[in-house]
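Entry for the shared binder. Reason: the reviewer on the internal report wants the predicted structure included alongside the sequence.
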Amino acid sequence: MTSHVTSTPSRQDTASSAFDGGSRAPLHGDGTVISVKQLSKSYQIGRRRSRADAGLRHILEDAVRAPLKWIRGERKPKLNTEFWALKDVSCNIRRGEVVGIIGRNGAGKSTLLKVLSRITEPTKGRIEIDGRVASLLEVGTGFHQELTGRENIFLNGAILGMTRAEIKRKFDEIVAFAEVEEFLDTPVKRYSSGMYVRLAFAVAAHLEPEILVIDEVLAVGDAQFQKKCLGKMSEVSRGGRTVLFVSHNMAAVSTLCDRVIVLNQGKIVFDGPTDEGVRIYALDSQAVAQSRVDLANRTVGRFGEKRYACLQTLELLNSDGMPSTTLQMGEKAVFRLVIDVLRPSDNFEIGIVIGNFQGVSVHCLVSGWEGLHSIPEKGLHSVEVELPSINIFPGDYQAHVWIAINGQYYDDAVEEALRFSVEEGRVNAHPTYFSRYSRNSQVYIFSRWTVSKLGSRVLLQHSLGKNGV
């Protein structure tokens, strides 16, 4: 098996490496900066690391442990188990594109970024990169733990091929963006994970790489900093630079990216417009829609200590009181939730969040808003939430459910608990065509429209409520 990875240096980027094929002409006339052809990456399971995947520390560890294993009579593991993290991946990415790479855990997203960032070698295939790459893949990647924040800024700039003068010119911007000025001369091993990520992103984004590679590591930062990062990535792309962005946050992907690549089991299953890609990812990530779901043994997407209560089941009923996965706009619907109360409290809040597959919350139903705060007895309880009229636009949705105590922390919560669809329906006495506007709107709100000629009496008045005329 062979691999070939080449890179066109930019400005001072002339350092040689196993991935650097030397200076070349531009990849293509269409502005392509990354060309991936039949890329594959395999790992051997149950055997020692290959030298391509092992650092010096791992090689030394193996050398020390080998005699001890021989004395204990430990045999070498079998060498015939092979796992393909990537398999025949091919794509071209052009200058200035912001490309989201999405997929379930284990789909191969991070492996692809590590190969593109020249952190690990591919097993076979070919990659051509035109320009220097700055990567933010994992907390701890790219920084020397014993060096201070200031020293790491200069180190990373040097690795990217920048002169000291260039780094100094960007230095104040980096420090201001990262908000770590007070700790600039402290070794980064003393930093919290949030501080670390703030500085690492600031360095990667401000040192003018032609290609910026960002993994899910941004999830470590707080909401305000994530918003700053998304704004900076948008600014980077407008400047003609390329951004590769891996995230499970579909709202961020939809906002930032104009193209997505969906990976599944190491293969590309979709490469195209963001909306369609996010939809495919959502359908792949979810179980088949069910009107009633068992939550008692659910572990994926679940969090909370379950000290006061435990979610058991969630069911969706239509206007006829029958279990259903499809509703019509305007019809009555009921969410029926069964919870096991372990510790009665006067400060219960139960919530159901209705969201779309782009990660956007469309509406939130909270028991406390309607005056329900107390469940006084232990044991199983059925809680019904009635919606007199479903007024969300046609489309596919998912319900997230939670139990909170004192309105401060989640005692039990399950994300993406139940999937359902909404179809076109009548919400008033007039013909409607809501599906035309589903891309721009999510919720229908009753309103009254009046038309009058200036200086005269009212000519027309229409109410869009159920009994409107």
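Summary line for the report: The longest helix spans residues 56-72.
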